[in-house]
From TrEMBL:
It comes from the Eukaryota. PANTHER family: LD41638P (PTHR13677:SF0). One of its GO terms (molecular function) is guanyl-nucleotide exchange factor activity. This is Uncharacterized protein. GO terms for cellular component: recycling endosome.
Length: 240
């Protein structure tokens, strides 16, 4: 016989076994059984991943805090305050294993799979494996890239007076905005930034154009002569 130290957390699925036996007795092509097995493991994998994805999504910042053209956001929290209080994009909360496990009773795989077993222990085992760490790292990278893209989009499409109320800002605050725009422009022009690789090149060009126009308006129309001279000095942004 075959002996293993592996512990089975889930019970055998008798439904798929009966289907496989049925196709075998009817001498159907192997491709039929292959299709059955592929579908079975695909659906099982999806049932396993859905609770992880759901919990991970709950760790993301609310879209209203970084999405462009968000009326709800701009009506409750003007962008000028956002610049002052949040110089970086919103961050993703940490994945807490115990908190995730608590969600399984209500939102576990039993909602999408009829397979019985100790799902919670299976997840506990999975959370300790390199496969989970790789999955989480990949999802965080994807999510951070999306958040940063929306963050840049929001700033690129903001309205200087309606959203930032720049006519009411002090020169120090205006200089802070100019520096913010310069930093974003420099980062967008960086070719190897992993957070920006996924952004379409046309969008990057559009963001750059809008940011440069806004920065020029702030400098030329709102800063003192000394500051205009300082910021209008030829400077080469890094494009490493």
């Amino acid at each position: 016989g075959l002996y293993t130290k592996y512990r089975s957390y889930l019970q055998r699925d008798k439904v798929i076994l009966r289907k496989l036996q049925s196709t075998n007795s009817k001498q159907r092509p192997d491709t039929v059984q292959n299709a059955l097995l592929r579908r079975f493991f695909l659906e099982l994998t999806q049932s396993f991943i859905i609770p992880l994805e759901r919990y991970f999504t709950s760790l993301l910042p609310l879209r209203k805090y970084y999405q462009a053209n968000q009326r709800y956001f701009t009506s409750l929290l003007p962008l000028r305050k956002y610049y002052q209080a949040n110089r970086e994009p919103p961050i993703i909360k940490e994945f807490e294993n115990e908190e995730f496990l608590k969600t399984l009773d209500q939102y576990g795989p039993q909602l999408t799979s009829g397979l019985k077993g100790d799902w919670k222990e299976l997840y506990k085992h999975f959370l300790s494996t390199p496969n989970f760490r790789l999955w989480l790292s990949h999802r965080r990278l994807e999510a951070n890239a999306k958040i940063y893209s929306l963050y840049i989009e929001k700033i690129a499409y903001c309205r200087l007076e309606q959203d930032l109320n720049i006519s009411q800002l002090t020169e120090i605050e205006l200089i802070d905005l100019v520096i913010k725009f310069k930093d974003l422009i420099q980062r967008i022009e960086t070719k190897h930034d992993e957070l920006l690789i996924r952004i379409d090149q046309k969008l990057k060009c559009d963001y750059l154009e809008k940011l440069k126009i806004k920065m020029k308006i702030i400098i030329d129309e709102n800063l003192s002569e000394d500051m205009k001279i300082l910021f209008n000095k030829p400077s080469r942004l890094s494009s490493s």
